Fold this protein.
Amino acid sequence: MESTASKLDNQEIIYLDWNNALDILERAYRSGLFVLIIGPKGTGKTTLVRKFASHMKKELYSVNFSLRTRESHLVGSKTIDQGEINFVEGVLVKSMRSGSMLYLDELNAAEADVLLRLDEALDDRKQLVLKEAEGQTIKAADDWFVIATINPLSHVGTKELPPQLLSRFPVRMRLEYPPEDLELEIVKRHISIDSSKIGDVKHAIQLAKNLREAAAVEELYYSPSLRETIAFAKMLNTDLPPRKVAEIVYANAYDQWGQVEYQKVMDMITSIFGDR
């Protein structure tokens, strides 16, 4: 996926803080310590960061890393406008100048040269020399704050972070999938569920848990996220049979790895929802 760099709106964010993560983030912010959040996809890492920025009333800049992310996404680049050469600042420089919050999403998917440039800005001096702009030095504002997220190394495209960069984030938080009762509460906060359908949503949560456990020990290739549980509830509200919804939302994703993977998931669905 192509990386993006954008300013995120601090609108009201739905986030159930089941493991006191917002308090830890605030303590790190008050202490001037950058934070690394570690966890699989779909555990709410981005939602947590957005909620924290809103809570702190901080402007939030974000970049999502991939193999296509370049230094220019972070630092900026020269442009020509009506014959004049200008330097357009990237998201890293903008956030440093303004003392905003910077969110580095999926940091361990970035290329080595990009990480090296980040390391320069994240060290104790919190400054960056812009070789792209005649050697201008950018010094971060005192309230500049950085949160990074990484996925486990089992995820495709991830790499081990260099030790010196890892040390720039001395506060490390693990974000796992919530317990089943709290996952149901999260779904309820996103969509209204008829009482007659609660049992089916609970079954979907149990299915998702089983699939995640199978993926964790590499019995399956994919671990469904909270997004799938919410999608299940939304599709269930269209009055499709719950087993059919489970097939659409969960099982069909595994067909890309072949019939054997797909059938494993369908067997799980039958055991939980029955054969109708």
User: Anything to note?
Assistant: Strands lie at 5-8, 35-38, 60-64, 76-81, 84-89, 101-105, 127-130, 136-139, 145-150, 171-174.
